[in-house]
User: What shape does this take?
Amino acid sequence: MVKTEQQTLPSPSLNGGSSISADKDTNKQSNHSLQLGRVSGGSALLGMTLEELQDVCLQLSMPKFTAKQMAQWIYGKHVHTIDEMTNLSKANREKLGSLFSVGCMAPVETQKSKDGTVKYLFPTENGKFVETVYIPEGDRATLCVSCQVGCKMNCLFCQTGKQGWQGNLTVRDILNQIYTVDQLIAEEGKTPLTNIVYMGQGEPLDNLDNVLKSTTILTADYGWAWSPHRITISTVGLKSHMRRLLDESECHIAVSLHSPIHEQRLQLMPAEKQFPIADIVALLREYDWSHQRRITFEYTMFGGTNDSPLHAKELTKLLKELFCRVNLIRWHRVPDVPLKEVEMDTMEHFRDYLCNHGIPTTIRASRGQDIWAACGLLSTSPRAGRFIPSEQ
Ligand code: SF4
Assistant: This one.
């Protein structure tokens, strides 16, 4: 059923026709030519499936085929106002505009790293904020999106976990990060998005309905028509939802592993108690990973904690004969966390051991550390002391 009630208005600076873009040299927002759709004046169309857009047409006595045209404008051509949907009749545009808006929301802050990484602070429908990170690399560019405000998982090493959980993002909140950044970088002549990773704030499997709906729209013919193999969904491994993710999505999956030893993983990641990594790996073994769909294990390394030859050996045993890859990630110090950063030569030895034992392993380059955009550093908590929106 389509909702038509008036939605809560975010801060006034985000209202109709606002034009905000990244300032290339400073951490501040600046006015720009990009026209971002209004966030007030009715429910958002962004985030609706084709079927839901058809419900809108039915409700407004518009022809059913108009829904497909609307989807093409919103998801294919990335328009930000209903007025831009020029193959809809003027009367239908007015009818639609009286109850709905496209619903794109501009970032309220932008930070640019010296390595080209850009971090955006987006408002959410429920008046909170989340961070999104654009990571260009040669002719590729990855967008790391958030799916929750904060996170319930409380991983020891993660700044988002310290923030606690403050709500799930809606489908619109998730897609807004993607569509708005895509528009901003196009305007600035930056490398277009080639990949999307659900690795920002939050645990995707703890907001699975909205995450799956967002990927459905991204991959649908009426949507962005992206291959699911350009999208990776990361998880600590909530086994209760894992099978649904495996069965209902073709996206790549990244499992946060971080230690092959139960007692230690439990200390690093409380989720291990309910969903031991051994059970997650056993479930993954039931699926065929030898074709295009990929399973990757993320292994954040902490000096003197999970970087020993014993860990490498145990990891090899755990993943034996599973068609997978391992990404080693350098951890960056988070205040009040009793863990140490790892030496690069230790990472290289660890990688070499895994590779020599049949597990393709790479050391993931760390990006955006100077703007707190690297892995484990995202937070929109005022306690984190940065990226605090002025109009909260
Ligand atoms: S590492 Fe991921 S799952 Fe763990 S607390 Fe941080 S955001 Fe949540």
